[in-house]
Amino acid sequence: MTDPPSFTRRRALISMLLASCARRAQRCGYCGMLVDPRSPWNTRLVLNDGTKTEFDSPRCALLAWRTGQVGAEDILVQDYYDRTWRRGQEVVFVVSSDVIGPMGADLVPIDMARAPQFTREHTGTRPLSLDQITLQLLMDLR
What we know:
The chain is α+β, with helices and mostly antiparallel strands. The chain has helices at 5-22, 58-66, 115-121, 135-141; strands at residues 43-47, 52-55, 72-78, 85-87, 91-95, 108-111, 126-128. It contains four helices and seven strands. Helix 2 (58-66) crosses helix 4 (135-141).
């Protein structure tokens, strides 16, 4: 004997709800904000043991790294134009542009070859290498 269609639909809906409740929402490793998996601002720090920690923006990831809250070997960011994941050494981080991150002023990761294009398209830009990003600069962005 088969279940009536309404019972089968109800059981499927309950199963989906239980499965979604079982998943833990990912939170930013610095500020605790929920990390939207579809956000182009998501950033990852590669920890010393090879695992990755998620952040809601480059600013949060770099603050966690530069303050010593997280011991990391590398940072992975999404390029502004094509959303390709790149290592921090492969991009420039643009400061003081008119592009705003999820929590306000942020660092915009740009492929080095596209930095001149970004500078033409956006106002007040200042591209910096990863090594040029200091804790003081990050604190001033707040």
